[in-house]
Amino acid sequence: MNLHAMSRQTLIHTGIAAFALCLLTAFSAPAHAAAKQPPRAESNKGDYWLGKEIYEEICFSCHGIKGNGQGPSFRSSRPRPQVFTSSYMKRMTDDYIFMIVKFGKMNVLLDKTKGFKLKGATPTAMPAFGEVLEDEQIRKLLKWEHGITTGKKIKDEESAEIFKDACSQCHGLAGRGDGERPRGDQPLGKPFVSEIQPPPMNYTLKEQMARFDDEFLFTLIKYGRLEATTVKKFDFMKAYGHILNDKEIWGVVRFVREAFVNGKSRKKK
Ligand code: HEC
Ligand code: HEC
Known about the structure:
The protein is mostly helical. It contains ten helices and two strands. It has one domain.
């Protein structure tokens, strides 16, 4: 940051740095507690075959029979359904997937989960930046991020600086979703499991970025994940706890993990 030029830009950047610091402070306490007990993606809980049955009855219609996020009705939601075969999913814990299916994504992010707590990870909604970024800056930032996804990087120093100050602690300096926050004190396993759930997006994954249109991304960055859904009415993963019991949900977690995330479906029993 150029400290000599007291331009409006500099002030905005200083604001972002302060805001980023607030975020870090706000999130640092649970992150520290979680560091002692690193999240684990696999718990080996749940019946694979029971899960397969349920998946092919309910989940396939959006997430696809092959877990590629393109079931018969995948076009009807914004954002589009999660792609289970993407490497992004390796950073998601079984516990988080269980809670998402039981309570729905919004309730997990709002911590309305009837006493169920995520083990070793912190539910974290993508924050709002409407107070520190102008609409035009957000639009430029999106274009710049698009360059990371396509591999054709755009030269835009202002966006690069905003990204470094306000986004990189979660999304990583190169936009791969591997900043300080999701990593925490975990050993550098390959791939690591994120301390933040859902894991911050890795912009280099084309199959993930294809789930979002520009309007959704703009709203997400300006208003944050919670308001994008509660006020702006963008979609989210709904709850299935009223039709599935815990045993069935663990089954589905096991099936999604093995068949799609690990890519090893079992042979017929
Ligand atoms: C009506 C469509 C629909 C159905 C049916 C559905 N989902 Fe989803 N699911 C979505 C959408 C849309 C998202 C993306 C939400 C987002 O990005 O905020 C999603 C996201 C997810 C996620 C990832 C959450 C995250 O934070 O990225 C998991 C795990 C998941 N679904 C599991 C399931 C399972 C298991 C079933 C079956 C019991 C199921 N879903 C049924 C639409 C659906
Ligand atoms: C406190 C951590 C954190 C910070 C800081 C942060 N993000 Fe995110 N971001 C997330 C998380 C978590 C998700 C996953 C959201 C989800 O699936 O609901 C995400 C997702 C995204 C996505 C993909 C859309 C999606 O729903 O997955 C984009 C684009 C994005 N962030 C942009 C930004 C930009 C630009 C900044 C800085 C101005 C930023 N983020 C700062 C945590 C963060």
